[in-house]
């Protein structure tokens, strides 16, 4: 019996076979257990010999089972280690790496430059109400500026005749939201996406602006001009760039100025600071008293300037990209060429 089981245990191929053997030998109805039960029918002399022998056999079988079980587990682990090994010295497979989109890069650069001038970054929703996008900014519903903005309107459910939400046409609503939240004095920029139904070489229906707002007790147009000049010099990394301030009109600023940057477009190549072309990059002015009032700031106590810069235009100028639409074509070859390594 002993040899039979020790051989069987030794030859068992896996844990299931081993368990079967255990039941067969020392389980409740196992061969050894049954023999132990028959001890009762023996004479005391026989029992004295057979009893210890059977107990020793049972212990030996149990020990052999345990030893084989751990040997099987070791073998299984060895087998796994043999198949799942990894050579950490192999050269890595080349990975396709993404890049930072020029618009994201420029947004970062612009934010960093204005941060140095003490502007905090503010945010607002891209889907907004006509109060924030127009009315609060002194553009009432009959005002021609609304029609000129090529606004995208969200549709309402049938029967819901509240005024529709709109895709913001500029970042100026963030002026109102920021002043409502933190009052004056305030110095913020608000970069983000804006939307207008317009499409050609220098217009896409979604584009990017960065709003600037600086309100204090004695903030003036001269401060605006200085800020913008410092910004343009820092952004284009030059000591001098020609800027053209053109008198303009925005309902939310008075007086207002549009600012152009000197550039040339020779053979489809765009260059900043030379030639006799101009590219408009921003609108600006002194915040209209009504706008301050609409945002809960007292215009008798506070005044200041605001500007809205076209981020996409800045990127075109800085990287000599003549067609704005390329930014949003998602052409991987283009993105690889103009993208920035993270
Ligand atoms: N919101 C204006 C536009 O989109 C730009 C602007 C911002 C003008 C702030 C003046 C002050 O054209």
From TrEMBL:
The gene is pheS. InterPro entries: aa-tRNA-synth_II, aa-tRNA-synth_II/BPL/LPL, Phe-tRNA-synth_IIc_asu, Phe-tRNA_ligase_II_N, Phe_tRNA_ligase_alpha1_bac, Phenylalanyl-tRNA_Synthase, tRNA-bd_arm. PROSITE patterns: AA_TRNA_LIGASE_II (PS50862). Tetramer of two alpha and two beta subunits. GO terms for molecular function: ATP binding; magnesium ion binding; phenylalanine-tRNA ligase activity; tRNA binding. Residues 104-342 form the Aminoacyl-transfer RNA synthetases class-II family profile domain. One of its GO terms (cellular component) is cytoplasm. Keywords: Aminoacyl-tRNA synthetase, ATP-binding, Cytoplasm, Ligase, Magnesium, Metal-binding, Nucleotide-binding, Protein biosynthesis. SUPFAM superfamilies: Class II aaRS and biotin synthetases, tRNA-binding arm. The lineage of its organism: Bacteria, Pseudomonadati, Pseudomonadota, Alphaproteobacteria, Rhodobacterales. It comes from Pelagimonas varians. This is Phenylalanine--tRNA ligase alpha subunit.
